[in-house]
Amino acid sequence: MSVNVSVIRITRASKASISLGVALCLVAITLPFWGESSWMREFVEIACYFIFAMMWNLLAGFGGMVSVGQQAFFGLGAYALLVMGNFLGINPFLSIPIAGVLAALISLPVSKIAFRLQGGYFSIGTWVIAEVFRLSIANLSAVGGGSGTSLTALRGMDRTFRENTTYWVALACVIMTIVLIYFFLRSKQGLALLAIRDSEVAAESQGIAVQRMKLAVYVVAAFGCGIAGALYLVTNLRISPDAAFGVNWTAFAIFIVMIGGIGRIEGPLFGAIIFWGLNKFLSDYGTWYLLGLGVLAIVMMLFFREGAWGFFTRKTGLEVLSIQRRLQR
Hints:
The protein is mainly alpha-helical. Helices cover 73% and strands 3% of the residues. It has helices at residues 12-29, 31-34, 37-62, 71-86, 92-114, 120-138, 159-185, 188-198, 200-205, 210-236, 241-245, 248-260, 266-282, 287-303, 307-316; strands at residues 6-8, 149-150, 238-239, 326-328. Strands 1-4 form a two-stranded antiparallel sheet. A two-stranded antiparallel sheet has the order 2-3. Helix 5 runs antiparallel to helix 10. The chain is globular.
């Protein structure tokens, strides 16, 4: 007796959410024509948090590689753009994707070291690698040494043009990040990555090239982190080794992903908005603000392990960017 079974990969809610997302993107493109410049700056800040957190989520949430040193590629992206803009005369906006590519290329030899380590040793090892980069940059006087320097390549550029272009570039990076991660995770390669996360031994026994897939994801994550670092520099116009390579970036990413929902595409986006709101309105409270972030993180890990978005999905049954496969008779 044969049973007809079909695989459901997208729901009605997902279709409606994608349509709504496209409409929001079209509206967002027009923001510079009717919105305040402060709104655009806030969006770029959220974009930096989101892209970096999404890359960390790709590594840890989907790939099972818990890194504490992704700020290495964030800083490399920022300093790559600084060198291209200040010393090579390349337009900083055109330098943003190049900075991501350079960070990805540097991740190739770095992976040779990092992948020799497993588990907690991998996490600590990535942090040590990031510290090596920070100390190395801090000893280069050409880029300001330990005190840092400013991006002078944008000097003389009209402020309105600079802010609008930065916003549009950040919006494009956010859209591309979501779209590419979504379609990757829905592909066979994405399914292979999830299998590696659950069990490397079982995945390898099914013919999956575990090391090759982990390397590919590590390089892609480095590219995204480099893009986030370059965007950060274009927005702030000044960089220093402590700001670029600080472990706070990974701490923020972990907080964002845990609050929003690890192993979900929507998690980093939702978590980045929450983190930005807390940082925007409560940071003036000093140590109480940091204590509040810690308490919130503990509460989420104890009672809402699936994150805020995961809790919403479980209660409502609605999935915006579903990557699951369901069998239906």
